[in-house]
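User: I want to check something. If I give you two sequences, will you return the structure for each one separately, not as a complex?

Assistant: Yes, each is folded on its own. Here is the first sequence with its structure:
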Amino acid sequence: MHQMTRVAAAAAAATIAAASAAWAQQPPTVRVRGTIEAVDGQNLTIKTREGADVKAKLADNAMIVAVVKASYSDIKQGSFIGVTGMPQADGSQRCMEIHIFPEAMRGTGEGHRPWDLRPQSTMTNATVDQLVTAVGSDHTVTLKYKDGEKKIVVGPECPIVTYAPADKSELKPGAKIFINAATKNEDGTLAVPRINVGRDAPPPM
């Protein structure tokens, strides 16, 4: 019996070690912000915001999502939204952009983390707990997520968008795109499982 227990324990340890090694070997993901320059089937040539040319290949089942202009009035108590912000001295975040998630995407990336839109910027994906219209042009939104909450100051300069289904016809030269999690193929191209494309607003995130 003890021998069987030791064998089972050793097998479990080996399984955990193998899973940990596989996790450690997961390729890092990269974000791409830019403009489509050319389309050839599943292959895209993109001019990034930094000025580089990159080659990207859409997965056969890639999700293509349109970025659609929205407004502050579209944000309701209980909405699940994502906010890119800049930390302020009082602990609040000054809004740089807001994306309103459709209900089917509620919970996506919930929490607060660093972001790379600008140095020191952050991303908060959370549920709207309170909306306050301040005197003047700024609004205040309180967001709550599993481990805490953030106060967001929303000025009139903050772009607000939402998402809608899209297809490959919207991936054309001149289209503004955002790819959140591409991985590098052996040939140096980027493998793309999902791409956001601006329909009537460029992806601001």
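And separately, the second sequence with its own structure:
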Amino acid sequence: MPGIEGTESEFRERLSAILTATPLLMQVLSVARRLCLSDWLVFSGAVYQPVLNHLTGRPLNYGIKDYDLGYFDGSDLSYEAEDAVIRRVKAAFDEPLRSMVEVRNQARVHLWFEAKFGESYTPLSCTAEALERFTSATFAVGVRCQLSSVAPPLGRSPIKPLSLK
């Protein structure tokens, strides 16, 4: 595929340019930052889909069905605490984003994962750790608005932040 060669630094620059040119994603990142959720990331399709769209000549928002917003708060693992955050986040957006932003406390995933997917899931220690458990490296990318990205290290090298300008 043309345009996919380069150094890690060049890839980070290209990723930053693509993501900052994606208005709905930037709106989600901006609102999430203002909400001050603990250890939050926007991840999955909201991040990789604009890249795939850019490479295939489609509009950057094409095919984005939702914006997965994960946060990590181990201080209260109750559904009620997570639901309060879900309601607070939804109230911060107008449509269509209100219906598209899906919020989950990554500290709670182990409580429901097995019932939903039939496999056990050991507790996470942070939101970024969830990326290491994604079934595909393509999907395992996340960004936040300090603006840095997190992905499982390739070849187990340290994760380096990505600054979006």
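Because they were folded independently, the notes below concern the second chain alone. The beta strands are 41-43, 67-71, 101-105, 142-144, 148-150. The helical segments are 8-20, 23-35, 45-56, 79-91, 97-100, 109-117, 127-131.
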